[in-house]
Write a structure and sequence with these properties.
The protein has 182 residues and is of the alpha/beta class. Helix content is 36%, strand content 24%. The protein has one domain: Rossmann fold (3-Layer(aba) Sandwich), CATH 3.40.50.150. The protein is globular and about 40 Å long.
């Protein structure tokens, strides 16, 4: 919690949260993942690792979690925290250019994309670039799972994906909506 508070003060425009994700939010997010063998899960913004931890606990060892984090202290924290997992990789890399990293890693598609990005504070140009690419990198029955503290991007996500379902986690600070997009 100390690391999170320090980084919020230093990087509020990139973090977009006032507290770390609760275990309730993390558990609610992972219930939208049908874990299986040999999957690739991409995570945008692992922060202090609250959601990452739950993914790694449920994910089979044959699957791979690739996390992107632009905040250096968070990245180093998660590198250390999850170093025992051979199927976890973390990169100091922008989500906007995730496709460049996937190409470097020789990955054509991912099964799930889990996002903690603060969509409400991203500029429209970045949102358009990001969401033009995301559907192209999901397998046919893959999902994009995003949490937000408001419903302000619901209509936008409906223009990008065929299906957008909502879930809600009241026990989080602040309470959070979860979008599952396919």
């Amino acid at each position: 919690m100390k690391l999170f508070a320090k980084e919020v003060v230093n990087s509020l425009k990139h973090i977009g949260a006032i507290a770390p994700s609760s275990k309730y939010l993390a558990n609610n997010i992972i219930k939208h993942i049908d874990f299986g063998d040999n999957q690739i899960i991409l995570e945008f913004g692992c922060g202090n690792g609250a959601i990452t931890k739950q993914i790694l606990r449920k994910m089979p060892s044959s699957s791979r979690l690739i996390s992107l984090e632009i905040n250096d202290p968070f990245m180093k924290h998660c590198q250390n925290k999850f170093k025992v997992y051979n199927n976890f990789e973390i990169y100091n890399h922008s989500a906007i250019d995730f496709d460049l990293l996937l190409n470097q890693l020789d990955i054509e598609k991912v099964d799930y994309l889990i996002s903690s990005l603060p969509l409400a504070i991203l500029n429209k140009a970045d949102l358009d670039v990001l969401f033009k690419k995301i559907p192209q990198y999901l397998i046919n029955d893959g999902s994009f799972v995003q949490y937000q503290y408001s419903l302000n991007k619901y209509k936008f996500l409906k223009t990008v994906f065929d299906s957008v379902t909502l879930d809600f986690t009241p026990i989080n600070l602040p309470p959070a909506f979860i979008y599952r997009c396919t």
